[in-house]
Amino acid sequence: MARKLPLTHDYRLVPAAAAVWTTAVAGLFLSWQAGAITGLTAGAIGLTAWRRAWWTKTTAIALLISGPVAAAWVGGHVLRAESHPLRQAADEGRSTTLTVELTTRPKGIRAAGFGGTQAGVENVVIRATANGAQLVLFAPADRWRDLLPGQEVTVKGTLAPPRGGDLASALLRVRGPPQNPRPPPIWQTWADEHRDGLRQASAVLDDEEAGLLPALVVGDTERMVPRIVDEFRTAGLAHLLAVSGANLAIICGAVYLLTRRLGPRPAAVAALMALVGFAILAGPEPSVLRAAVMGAVALLALVLGRQRSAVPSLATAVLVLVLHDPALGGDPGFALSVVATAALVLVAPKWARALKKRGVPNGLAEAIVVPMAASLATAPVVAGLSGQVSLVSVVANLVAGPVVAPATVLGVVAAAVAPLSPQAAEFVTHVAGPAVSWLVVVGRQASAVPGAAVGWPDGWTGAIALTAVTVVVVLLLRFKKTRTLVVAVLVGGFVVLVPLKVVAPVWPPEGWKVVSCDVGQGDALVLATDDAETAVLVDTGPDPGAVDRCLKTLGIKKIPLVVLTHLHADHVGGLDAVLTGRAVGAVAVGPLREPEWAWKEVSRRARAHGVRVVEPKAGERFALPGLELEVLGPRRPPVAEDENTTVNDYSLVLKAHTRAGRVLLTGDVELAGQAALLGERDLNAEVLKVPHHGSRYSLPAFLKAVRPRVALVSVGTGNRYGHPSPHVIDVLRAGGALVLRTDKDGDLAVLPGNRIVRRRRHGLGQVVQRSLPDPRWHAGSRVGVVAEELHGDAVAARRTQARFRLLHLRNTRRRHARRHVQGDDHARAAPDECRDDGRRVRPRRGARVRRRPADRAGGLGRLPLQRAQGGSPVAATDRGVARHRGGGRTARGGRLAAVPAHRLASDGRDRLVRRERLGDARASPSRKEVLNPVP
């Protein structure tokens, strides 16, 4: 028997393809000069290699020709985009009206939702051409999401500079609907009908499967459930949600296998027709076009069996695509396609042959190795894009691989027959349902594994770093001397690091009673009962994935009551994830059923899961083992106003009696709601869920009445709302509370004995809170952020020998100045203490103040910091807010007139808070600190 020679690949065109790609990257991300220099350098290397016979003539000549061609072609495109008149107009921010031709389908941008704004797709991004320039349109989704590539429309908007990395000359922020739209090409209409038919046929499945099937087949992620997207990303299955060469390889391979009895040529023609039809169905976008080319290469490698021509075909595809559209060189999707296809033609055949030798059937072997090879090869690119590395990717793809091909083929069949027979399409969709459900289960279980994904640097740095690590490990594994060492290091790392990461810092901590989940800009708080795996959930946050992860890590499987304090998106967005896979007794909502869309969504979700909706009244109690809930408010009758402030003030307010103490749950109540709660007989609680994410609309009198030991602020990192307000944090800390924030501390657990455990993203940390401090020291023991900032400014001014000027209150100067004595309530110093001797601050004339070196920040904390606008200082009292009437002599006292709490929201003046230290002769004089509302 003749010995079978090992298969060798032809790499002669690889240097030329790499040179063209590198030239495009340099031109797009640096400048056209950098692209030209890179291409010319590649040509010079090719010339040197030809003369000195470093490589074969074909390799050297290909590099010699492709380098200068890429330099001229890429440099010319980049220069044309940078010098186009629209770029100059974009730099100036001009408004314009253009007639554009769309080149891609609208892609929705999903918003998380906050307040009365519903989560979902609000805007779309479309690529278009106008006057020989490429544009990116940022348009409202209402009237733009139904447009198709090839249509010409007239659009009005404002130009802005593009983000870079492509050939777009400008970004156009569209105003209003498209005008004068022309009909799309006939093949685009045909493709859109089939895509709509697939979406309608998928509606017979559950919501998660109905959104996943179109994404799996044609990359349509518009109806994807956000929770599924997050789980697939963590499990390393995100590549299944985009059209790639694997999709086309599966379709063309299935057609070829079905028609191969007709002969090789008819089967190849049928596969080619399927390739063209699928490209039209998915849309002639750059991602689909490159997937078609890469799918053709994969078809040659895996179906036709001509593995030797696979690498030259791949290199030729890169050359043609990048020279045709240099913007592909900077597209992450292009990199994913190239790397995945290279894995398909180089790695997948070897793995498939290995499986066949072990008795795996032919079609099943390819179905298994194709997604596995693609996921491993694309891991560096995915890590650079997402900033994390999935440790369960290989296993998840191995388990999910066998059903990817059947689900894809059945989805294409359903799309093909949908316009002819919707009933037949629904039947095919039902047949594909179990395969799609299996993918959902695999993604959910894989993402639930502790440590399923680890953080990694994002961007080019992360991608290059993971590539280097992978290459080094593979090279070391090829040598026998280092193979044992590498295996030992990897095993040892898993044995040591995994327990330290997952096991040692146990979460949740034993005996936890309250957990504030880190769900971003929203609320989700869990109250434990004495029954294992049972808890009450108050609000569900804006993101289904975040609250689901929190409940999974806590091991909660039974929820007798889900409380939605009010129906804003950042409190009800995760309800569907809470109801899925858990036993829920009831959903409690407040009396105000606004916004209307949120009430309809909550009712629909509850009915779909067979959960009843209840409306608790003020004064009702819910008793559970080890937990009692008391409803404090609202007590006012509902007023149907779909405004954020009204909805917030009608939040359900509860007091929970737990084994860790009393917990006051305030929802998003603002000034009017807090003022109404001041009439309660007892608001005191050991733990306070700070109202409205620490918003500035909080009454100091309300916070003083609660007097918490621990204040939990649920807030998102870098939110654009200014939450939490530093002035509210000052008031809480001045009252002796330990303030913890989910954006900085992560998940927060409260345990009996005033213990707090924080589950940060990089580990666990424990903080022990001692007993409540003596009330006499509440005001003097801490200095607010405002005073600290002023103290820093004063020190900097003194070091630079500059004068530090302070604004003063109107008419605060006494007629007869006198020396400031200890314990005096007067905030001004004597005239002889205003010298600038290096230890004192010389204030503005008319506000003489002395700052003692022993109490620098405290001295600045009692300065009159700002002028009260309108001549009427506003002060916080125990019963609300009061305004001084009279000539403005605030230091002499006077009559205070009550100001309704609901009017304070529109009052733009500073709020003066007066706090005194009591009962200590050593205490410094009274401090005054102005709380400035953040606009």
Automatic annotation (TrEMBL):
<keyword id="KW-1133">Transmembrane helix</keyword>
<dbReference type="InterPro" id="IPR035681">
    <property type="entry name" value="ComA-like_MBL"/>
</dbReference>
<feature type="transmembrane region" description="Helical">
    <location>
        <begin position="237"/>
        <end position="259"/>
    </location>
</feature>
<dbReference type="Pfam" id="PF00753">
    <property type="entry name" value="Lactamase_B"/>
</dbReference>
<dbReference type="InterPro" id="IPR052159">
    <property type="entry name" value="Competence_DNA_uptake"/>
</dbReference>
<dbReference type="InterPro" id="IPR036866">
    <property type="entry name" value="RibonucZ/Hydroxyglut_hydro"/>
</dbReference>
<feature type="compositionally biased region" description="Basic and acidic residues">
    <location>
        <begin position="904"/>
        <end position="935"/>
    </location>
</feature>
<feature type="transmembrane region" description="Helical">
    <location>
        <begin position="484"/>
        <end position="507"/>
    </location>
</feature>
<dbReference type="InterPro" id="IPR001279">
    <property type="entry name" value="Metallo-B-lactamas"/>
</dbReference>
<feature type="transmembrane region" description="Helical">
    <location>
        <begin position="398"/>
        <end position="420"/>
    </location>
</feature>
<feature type="transmembrane region" description="Helical">
    <location>
        <begin position="364"/>
        <end position="386"/>
    </location>
</feature>
<feature type="transmembrane region" description="Helical">
    <location>
        <begin position="266"/>
        <end position="282"/>
    </location>
</feature>
<feature type="transmembrane region" description="Helical">
    <location>
        <begin position="459"/>
        <end position="477"/>
    </location>
</feature>
<feature type="compositionally biased region" description="Basic and acidic residues">
    <location>
        <begin position="821"/>
        <end position="840"/>
    </location>
</feature>
<protein>
    <submittedName>
        <fullName>Competence protein ComEC</fullName>
    </submittedName>
</protein>
<feature type="compositionally biased region" description="Basic residues">
    <location>
        <begin position="841"/>
        <end position="853"/>
    </location>
</feature>
<feature type="region of interest" description="Disordered">
    <location>
        <begin position="815"/>
        <end position="935"/>
    </location>
</feature>
<keyword id="KW-1003">Cell membrane</keyword>
<feature type="transmembrane region" description="Helical">
    <location>
        <begin position="20"/>
        <end position="47"/>
    </location>
</feature>
<dbReference type="Pfam" id="PF03772">
    <property type="entry name" value="Competence"/>
</dbReference>
<feature type="domain" description="Metallo-beta-lactamase">
    <location>
        <begin position="521"/>
        <end position="717"/>
    </location>
</feature>
<dbReference type="InterPro" id="IPR004477">
    <property type="entry name" value="ComEC_N"/>
</dbReference>
<keyword id="KW-0472">Membrane</keyword>
<feature type="transmembrane region" description="Helical">
    <location>
        <begin position="334"/>
        <end position="352"/>
    </location>
</feature>
<keyword id="KW-0812">Transmembrane</keyword>
<dbReference type="InterPro" id="IPR004797">
    <property type="entry name" value="Competence_ComEC/Rec2"/>
</dbReference>
<feature type="transmembrane region" description="Helical">
    <location>
        <begin position="288"/>
        <end position="304"/>
    </location>
</feature>
